[in-house]
Amino acid sequence: MNKFNILWKAVLSVFFVCFMQTYSQAQDSCFGLDEAVNGDFQTYNGTVSSTNAWINGNLNNWTVSHGTPSVSGALSIWMWSYSDAGEGVYMGHTFAAGQTYRLTYTINRSTDANPSSTFLVDLTNGLTPSSSVVIPTPAQQFQVSNESWINTGVTTTITEVFTVPIGQSFSQLWFRPYLAGAPNPNQAAVVLDDVTIEESIDCLCELPTEFQIASSVGADNCDYTFEIDPVLLASADYCVSWSLDGGPYVSDITPGDLALSFDCEDNGSHYVCARLFCCDSPNVFVPSCTDFGIDCPCPCVLPTGFQIAPSVDADLCEYTFEIDPSLIASADYCVTWSLDGGPYVSDTTPGDFTLSFDCDDNGSHYVCARIFCCDNPDVFIESCRDFEVVCDCICEPITDLTLNTGLVSLDCDYMFDANFTFPTGTNPADYCYQWSLDGINIGGNSNTIPYHMDCDDNNPHILCLDVICCDTGELLGQECIDFISQCDCPCESIDGVAITAADTTVECMYSFTANLFGATDPSLYCYDWTLNGVGIGTTATVTNTFECNDDTIYQLCVVVVCCETGEVVGNNCISFTPDCACPCDLPTGFQIAPSVDADLCEYTFEIDPSVISSTDYCVTWSLDGGPYLVDTTPGDLTLSFDCEDNGGHYVCARIFCCDNP
To answer: What is the pLDDT of residue 425?
Structure first.
């Protein structure tokens, strides 16, 4: 929420108890704008790290003077000291000789440090970066702040006005806690933040040296008003701006009067500051701050959890659910209830909810309750509990029980139904039904049940129905009838399927035939063949070609179905290995050797006889890319030429298996 309402008068309905400590600083001059570079530690590079290297190299305008200070929060500097050693940091700033300055900073002192601890601020020259815990000695030094160990655990703003000695100037501002002795009980530890440096300037109007901020609490205990003495603000030259918890200064609408509203979310420590300045020069001002604490009550505080306790009146079948009365004794609490996920309903007796059931409600249920602040139903805690309803049900025997069967479709779907008379005053929902066919339970829990039969069921059957009391299981009526199912069956059952395999005239092709036993009309049946799960045909006889020398053991299966209905009537599988040898094994390569009879101009080409010694091999020859011709002497080709054939030629030969050119 916006904790510093620019309209100043917004009402936020919060109660708080405050405590205050006021700071003001007398001064002999006015001061200009804040000139401190990165006094709030918010300008830096890279990922934040509590190391000297990061502070010295990445935290703009800050350097570690001694020890290893830590980066705290977002962002501030944590430092310690004891036994005349510790940690410190310094920032760069030029302080001119004879010039007056106003320094402000905030510190939060450790609550368990030795009360002898102090916090020191000095103007220095000559400090250099160091990680040693030994406190260094600057080349020049001038103390501007020495704060004793008060307001421990509270963030406090310190203001110092000082004049640099004539003839001296400084370039560093050094901050450090200091404890000369040993820890008792602990070290001196402090968090530093929000450093400002303002140089004195000529006042454009005559400001008072100091002022106080008065506060008052509104009637609703949640509104707070801060005021400056109206007499002090009588001059039209004066203007006022306000800041909450170190936020930006905003001019007030009613000079010297600030109204803030809070709620319980704002509980904790806060501080408000005012600046009294010359209206024509906002940079010339006198500051004052006051601390206060907020402790506003929330509308109501809900318990962290609760249980629902049940009780049962078995005679009336009433269930009462209760919440511990001590848990909801506060008039701030309201309760609503829900059954089985239904809408939440307010109870007439808070924390006490009674429900009536009957035997129709028997079974599992759950109830939920919500406790909420009566003035805010959207904030609640919830608890749920499961329970079983068991009510006595009254069932009387039925009369005139008869059973009927009917074929309702050509697909052999039957409907079984029962007729009977319920006794007067009974509830039909109290009765359950158990159907059976030939002594086997077929389900159903009503007086009608659909049932599918098939051709194999065309024979006599016994249909029975037991009518029982749902609550007790008592048998209240029973009836059985004989009937014969009459399904329209396009395919008769077969006695089995046999598979025969046979060679064909095609090399490595086999045929497979499904033989049906007991089938009077084989044309009514369809087939689904698979070889190792892959479909190879849908007729009674199928063929498949294998690779030569294939010695794989195949799983050959056929499923026989009735073509009209798709009903499976038979199936069979066999293992099968083809027996198909490859023709011959050719050599991997060969050469052609030429010889010439110059007198006759005859050229003879030969293949090594050992390469083609097998009678399985045949050879063909081709000249200059012409057709291949079978040689009369295998592996030996003689060609005659004349002078017209002079020139380049080439001859080719092919060796092949004679039975597979």
So the answer is: 60
> Left, alpha or beta for 456 (phi > 0: left; psi -120 to 50: alpha)?
alpha
Q: How many CB atoms lie within 10 A of CB 639?
A: 15
Q: What percent of the chain has pLDDT over 90?
A: 33
The string of DSSP codes covering 395-411 is ----EEEEEEEEEEETT
Residue with tokens 């069956």: 489
Q: Are 36 and 172 in contact (CB under 8 A)?
A: no
Backbone torsions φ then ψ of 428, nearest 5 degrees: -55, -25
Question: What CA–CA distance (Å, rounded) separates 35 from 91?
Answer: 12
Q: Using one digit for the tens of pLDDT, what is the confidence trace for 423-437?
A: 766 777 778 889 899
**Percent of all residues in the chain with a pLDDT value above 70, rounded to a whole number:** 92
Distance CA 509, CA 377 (A): 85
Q: Give the span between the Cα atoms of 550 and 582, in whole angstroms.
A: 9
Rg (CA), the chain: 54
Strands 281-294 and 250-251 come out as: unpaired
Instruction: Check if the beta carbon of residue 328 is closer than 8 Å to that of residue 336.
Output: no
Listed residue (321, 323, 328, 335) closest to 366, CA to CA: 321
- pTM above 0.85? no
Distance CA 360, CA 393 (A): 8
Residue in 107, 191, 202, 193 with CA at minimum distance from that of residue 155: 107
CA atoms of 605 and 623, how far apart (whole Å): 11
Q: What DSSP letter does each residue of 442-489 carry, written as one string?
A: EE--SSEEEEE--GGG-SEEEEEEEEEETTT--EEEEEEEEEE-----
Provide the mean pLDDT of the chain: 84
Q: How far is Cα of residue 592 from the mean position of the Cα atoms in its chain?
A: 77
Q: Are 44 and 60 in contact (CB under 8 A)?
A: yes
Using DSSP bridges, classify how beta strands 629-630 and 617-623 pair: parallel, antiparallel or unpaired. antiparallel
Residue 123 and residue 92: Cα distance in Å, rounded?
10
pLDDT at residue 63, rounded to an integer: 97
Average pLDDT over residues 298-309: 81
Sole residue written with tokens 């399904």: 487
Q: Coil, helix or strand for 435?
A: strand
Name the residue with higher pLDDT: 186 or 124. Answer: 124
CB of 300 within 8 A of CB of 54? no
Tokens of 661: 């050119």
* Token code pair at residue 194: 């929000």
